[in-house]
Design goal:
14 helices, single chain, Ribosomal Protein S5, domain 2, 24% strand, alpha/beta, zinc-finger, hydrolase, globular, metal-binding, Rossmann fold, RecA_ATP-bd, seven-stranded mixed β-sheet
Length: 476
């Protein structure tokens, strides 16, 4: 009898080795490599259950009708969720949903399944972490106990697929979570890389053959990444992240990957006593409680996909007693902040090398577009000079390394959102858009123009404002 070859698999990234190692060379993780049964994996699952190789069918591309070209979608009944998915769930698609523990993933999926079941669709909620009674208690707390949602507490993939195949195929099947599932074709413990990969493949095959939309709930690591092998994210059709902070009452659903829709849309929810409530106007939520008279705050008119969003940028510039001043950023790219600071010092005449800089996006929102450069620069200069920016003004624009302010896309949508919330003026780069603007705009060419405008409204020489700084007067 031939000796079986040992296989060692990293439980963090899925790298395979022929012997045990203390550190994985692929992800640099320590003590993540464990021994697994040879032959178990993606190739072993289908081959073990298929007695012979059957011929596949070939379909001509020119035979598709106009209706078949567009994948039919199933509305979830939650507008913010449909916005992120691209208009609803595509039949036969598989979505991987990740998020921190306690963020509200199960609550969101329970509300979505109840809304779809209320329209006559067959919906199944499979929980591998909770009993049926516990899931029913959550539904009663949310006021959804009367909805015809099929509940089950099972972790065996073969039993789940066999049960869902009986009768009419469900329109939506929720698996909570994929890390608890196991398949009989793999001889390893649930939660391992091989089990997660094989279980996900079986559920994906079921979705593609029956047209059922499947949502797989995934755990996340300490770094915020979805746990398990990266190959699962490549296998599914969409990857969504449910973000939020325990200190804030709102949650953000963001698409990381989507084969059937955009990846730059977000859905905003508010956590209430009755579950997750949709937020149709997130700008008003993020600007609530804003201090209009405080120096170091600027309102940024941003875009998240097709949705304009106004958020408050907060900056604090304080003299540092350290040899290397601190740079702390929350909600923005730290490298982008370093670039803006360098441009302000080189082309704006602002000396920031001896100051600690703290930057925060109010409300816990994370932004990444370069259009926030101008708002960040305005908040920094305002904090350094002690001059409060006008409360009715919004800022957006990209700053180049030469100090020039470059145009950004969708300026008209940003201006309309600012006007809707009562803002009267916008500082923006010179663009080519000629649409009628309902609010006053000031076009800026160079970062020095913005610095001069803030300095003109700041404390006079010899004055002592709240954030008076003599170094700013030297650069004035």
């Amino acid at each position: 009898m031939a000796k079986l070859q040992q296989t060692f698999v990293c439980q963090s990234c899925g790298a395979v080795y022929n012997r045990w190692r203390g550190r994985c060379e692929a992800c640099n993780g320590w003590n993540t490599i464990v021994e697994e049964t040879p032959g178990g994996g993606v190739q072993a699952g289908p081959a073990a259950t298929r007695p012979s190789r059957a011929r596949g069918r070939v379909f001509p591309l020119e035979g598709l009708t106009g209706e078949a070209k567009q994948a039919p979608r199933i509305p979830s009944g939650i507008a913010e969720l449909d916005r992120v998915t691209g208009g609803g769930f595509v039949r036969g698609s598989v979505i991987l949903l990740g998020g921190d523990p306690g963020i509200g993933k199960s609550t969101l999926l329970m509300q979505a399944s109840a809304a779809m079941a209320g329209t006559g669709q067959r919906v199944a909620y499979i929980s591998g972490e909770e009993a049926v009674g516990q899931v029913r208690l959550r539904a009663e707390r949310l006021g959804l106990a009367d909805r015809p949602v099929e509940l089950a507490a099972e972790t065996n993939v073969e039993d789940i697929v066999e049960t869902l195949s009986q009768g009419r195929p469900p329109a939506l099947a929720i698996i909570d979570s994929i890390q608890t599932m196991w398949t009989e074709t793999v001889d390893s413990a649930p939660g391992t890389v091989t089990q997660v990969r094989s279980s996900a493949q079986s559920l994906i095959r079921f979705a593609k053959t029956t047209g059922t939309a499947v949502i797989l709930v995934g755990h996340v690591t300490k770094d915020g990444q979805i746990a398990g092998p990266r190959v699962v994210e490549h296998m599914v059709d969409a990857v969504a992240s449910f973000e939020g902070d325990q200190g804030h009452h709102f949650r953000i659903l963001r698409a990381v990957k989507n084969r059937f829709g955009p990846t730059d849309e977000i859905g905003v929810f508010e956590m209430t006593d009755g579950g997750l409530a949709e937020v149709p106007n997130p700008s008003a939520l993020f600007l609530a409680g804003r201090d209009h008279q405080a120096a170091g705050t600027a309102v940024f008119a941003g875009m998240e996909g097709t949705r304009p969003l106004l958020v408050e940028i907060q900056a604090l510039v304080a003299p540092s007693a350290l040899g290397m001043p601190r740079r702390a950023v929350v909600g923005w790219d730290p490298n982008r902040l370093s670039m803006v600071l360098a441009v302000l010092e080189a082309h704006g005449g602002i000396r920031l090398s001896g100051h600690d800089v703290y930057l925060n996006v109010a409300g816990g929102l994370r932004i990444s577009e370069p259009a926030a450069d101008l708002a960040v620069a305005a908040a920094l200069v305002s904090s350094l000079s002690g001059a409060a920016l006008p409360a009715e003004t919004v800022y957006f624009g990209e700053i180049g390394l030469s100090g020039a302010i470059r145009p950004v896309a969708q300026a008209s949508a940003r201006l309309k959102e600012a006007q809707k919330l009562g803002f009267a003026k916008a500082l923006m780069p010179q663009g080519r858009e000629t649409a009628d603007r309902a609010l006053a705009t000031e076009s800026l060419r160079h970062i020095a123009d913005m610095v001069a405008g803030i300095a003109a409204n700041g404390p006079k020489r010899g004055g002592r404002g709240r954030n008076h700084n003599p170094r700013y007067e030297e650069a004035d």
